[in-house]
Design brief:
The chain is elongated. It has no helices and 7 strands. The strands form 2 sheets. It has a 5-stranded antiparallel sheet with strand order 1-2-7-4-5, with no helix packed on it. It is mainly β.
Length: 170
């Protein structure tokens, strides 16, 4: 797909060691159909000791492959469950898009809601994780009531890089 596309993808090839002999290293990147370019990047990982040297690429071959094409993944995904009595539905929605908020309509067929609340963890950096010193991934909405109209499906704006839990009560 190329690193600059939405999803950021790459392929790696690892050599067995660093020495003065030529090594054959091969790897395959399976791009999606909307790719407009590919960048070739060489990176030498050599441990703690500094290394000097030269990286040469000889006989680089790019070949159009007509094998399987990976479809783009949905940036908005969800999972739902309901209470044993069927009166409450629970929905977890992930917006995996790295840059865009996504508005979506929530309409569970056969269920009319009288109230809805939501909890949201949102917008951490793509490589975020929490440590005792720094909390990058945070709960930013805690049980807030969602505005509803009587005869319309529920619409919500899911922020970029977010997880939203929604509780819908009949």
């Amino acid at each position: 797909r190329g690193w600059t596309k939405q999803i950021h993808s790459a392929v790696a090839a690892t050599a067995s060691g660093v020495d003065a002999t030529w090594q054959h290293i091969e790897s395959t990147l399976k791009p999606l159909p909307d790719i407009d370019s590919i960048w070739v990047l060489g990176r030498l990982e050599c441990g703690k000791e500094p290394v000097t040297g030269r990286l040469e690429i000889r006989n680089l071959q790019l070949q159009v492959v007509s094998s399987e094409i990976f479809p783009a993944y949905a940036a908005l995904t969800a999972s739902a469950s309901r209470s044993d009595d069927g009166k409450t539905a629970y929905l977890i929605v992930f917006n995996k898009h790295p840059e865009n908020d996504i508005e979506a309509t929530i309409d569970i067929k056969g269920m009319k809601y009288k109230s809805a609340r939501f909890w949201q963890v949102s917008n951490p950096p793509l490589n975020a994780f929490n440590t005792p010193e720094q909390q990058l991934v945070k709960l930013i909405v805690d049980g807030e009531v969602m505005p509803m109209t009587k005869h319309e499906p529920l619409t919500h704006l899911f922020p970029t890089r977010s997880m939203t839990a929604i509780e819908l009560v009949r």
